User: Which sequence fits this backbone?
């Protein structure tokens, strides 16, 4: 087992965002987390990375209690995080950011190779600044390249489809479909995209801060469809 | 190089201009108010002024890609050095000029260098001008640098100016003036970092007099501790022209940054833009670098290094 969450609770403004989450994630798995907006998905992954602190509960990573460790300590233990909205930096180039991401020294050629693997024409990008002149889709790919380079035991993606148009995402989804080749280790990805859910080993469905279901994408999606129909029938009968 | 140049001098020269590169073209090294070494080339002549301290630099027309180094070093505490350097760049010449001043002050008296650099570019000339200021030393005497740069661009000429003051200068007032004729372009990039009780004031004053003249002024600065920075930019669009000025500052601790843009359009086709952004380092930038394994302090340093690169 790679990751274990024990009784994680997180409350803000009198709202229980995460309500007693218990979860285990195995080694070398591709796990998708899905669920309606406001169900606590982003908070859950931020708690794993250490960006948010839980009110109570424990996080065990690779056999070690990391509940009280900082973001960088967790990063150095092998957790990597791709942001929903990639961060921009004035003055820092794509190459600089990739050098910072890799644990070892990398040459420009190696940086270009990674950029190509996430679908960017490397020579055009490697010396550009990671600033507002790059499009949302380009920034997402660079963000993915930063986590690919880290080669962490656990890589988290916080809803990569958010904030980019359908056309850009259709191009980007191929990168995720090849994610198993790109990233060795476990991937935890928040997504609403059926194509991503379909390639996951397991899908975790979060609702109102609780794990509502866990299983194969087929089972989860079918179950949800039945629930919706039942819901409608119940409404009609009542 | 001659024995007039000791190890401290060499270190200072290396800070403001790479020592190995200096000797590759024409150069003039000034130390403690005196010219100590000079080399001229077939295309670049350097002449000592007779009416006031300083030199005249003449670049022949059509000179291509020559380097000219004009470093100044001050190691004597209590010295105030005022120098006038005038650059005359011939038609269609294309040169790179590297100037800069390094002050080493181990004593309690103030050391000051006021360099007044004037550039006269003839038609079609191109100049890249790099200026670096640096201060060091253990004394409590202040290290003061007040550079003035005046740029006169004739039709079709262009100048790119990069200035950097990253370390050790206690007080500086930097004035940059530009007068632009038609089809000219003046690009200025300034980088400043202040700490402790330091004070820095920069004033840009650019007159866009000719049709299709343009200027881009970018200032990136970091103010830390109790330091104070003032950025004043005055741009006058007197013809069909374009200007973009940008002041970006990161502020930390108890520092203070004031940006005062002034754009004056005296012509209906003058297109003048100014942007100013002052703020602390964005929390999300620090968090991103922490997810890459950097501590909060290391992340901050990386962000500042990139910003001032």
Assistant:
């Amino acid at each position: 087992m790679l990751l274990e969450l024990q009784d994680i609770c997180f409350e803000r403004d009198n709202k229980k965002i995460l309500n007693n989450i218990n979860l285990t994630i195995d080694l070398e798995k591709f796990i998708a987390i899905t669920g309606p907006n406001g169900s606590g998905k982003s908070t859950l992954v931020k708690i794993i990375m250490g960006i948010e602190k839980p009110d109570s509960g424990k996080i065990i990573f690779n056999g070690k209690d990391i509940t009280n460790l900082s973001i960088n300590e967790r990063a150095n233990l092998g957790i990597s995080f791709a942001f929903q909205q990639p961060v921009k930096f004035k003055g820092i180039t794509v190459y600089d950011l990739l050098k910072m991401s890799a644990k070892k020294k990398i040459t420009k050629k190696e940086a270009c190779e990674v950029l190509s693997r996430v679908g960017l024409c490397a020579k055009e990008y490697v010396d550009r600044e990671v600033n507002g002149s790059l499009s949302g889709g380009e920034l997402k790919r660079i963000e993915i390249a930063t986590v690919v380079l880290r080669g962490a035991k656990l890589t988290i993606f916080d809803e990569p489809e958010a904030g980019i148009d359908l056309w850009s995402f259709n191009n980007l989804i191929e990168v995720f479909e090849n994610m198993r080749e790109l990233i060795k280790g476990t991937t935890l990805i928040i997504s609403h995209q059926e194509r991503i859910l379909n390639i996951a080993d397991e899908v975790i469905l979060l609702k109102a801060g609780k794990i509502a279901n866990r299983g194969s994408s087929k089972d989860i999606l079918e179950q949800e469809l039945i629930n919706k129909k039942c819901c409608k029938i119940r409404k009609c009968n009542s | 190089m001659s024995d007039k140049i000791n190890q401290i001098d060499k270190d200072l020269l290396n800070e403001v201009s790479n020592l190995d590169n200096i000797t590759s073209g024409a150069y003039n090294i000034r130390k403690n108010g005196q010219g100590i070494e000079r080399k001229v080339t077939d295309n670049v002549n350097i002449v000592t002024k007779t009416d006031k301290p300083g030199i005249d630099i003449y670049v022949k027309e059509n000179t291509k890609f020559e380097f000219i180094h004009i470093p100044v070093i001050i190691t004597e505490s209590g010295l105030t050095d005022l120098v006038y350097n005038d650059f005359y760049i011939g038609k269609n010449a294309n040169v790179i000029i590297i100037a800069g001043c390094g002050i080493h002050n181990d004593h309690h008296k103030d050391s000051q260098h006021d360099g007044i650099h004037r550039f006269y570019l003839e038609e079609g000339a191109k100049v890249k001008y790099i200026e670096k200021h640096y201060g060091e030393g253990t004394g409590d005497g202040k290290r003061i640098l007040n550079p003035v740069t005046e740029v006169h661009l004739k039709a079709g000429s262009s100048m790119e100016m990069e200035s950097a003051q990253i370390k050790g200068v206690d007080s500086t007032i930097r004035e940059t003036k530009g007068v632009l004729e038609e089809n000219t372009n003046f690009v200025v990039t300034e980088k400043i970092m202040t700490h402790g009780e330091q004070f820095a004031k920069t004033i840009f004053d650019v007159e866009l007099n000719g049709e299709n003249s343009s200027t881009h002024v970018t200032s990136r600065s970091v103010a830390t501790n109790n330091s104070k920075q003032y950025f004043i930019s005055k741009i006058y669009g007197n013809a069909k022209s374009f200007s973009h000025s940008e002041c970006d500052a990161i502020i930390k601790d108890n520092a203070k940054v004031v940006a005062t843009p002034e754009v004056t359009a005296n012509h209906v086709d003058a297109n003048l833009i100014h942007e100013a952004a002052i703020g602390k380092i964005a929390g999300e930038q620090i968090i991103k670098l922490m997810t890459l394994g950097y501590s909060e302090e290391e992340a901050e340093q990386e962000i500042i290094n990139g910003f001032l690169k």
Observations:
- The mean pLDDT of chain B is 91.
- Chain B has one domain: 7-281.
- Helices of chain B lie at 7-16, 19-22, 283-291, 296-307.
- The longest strand of chain B covers residues 64-74.
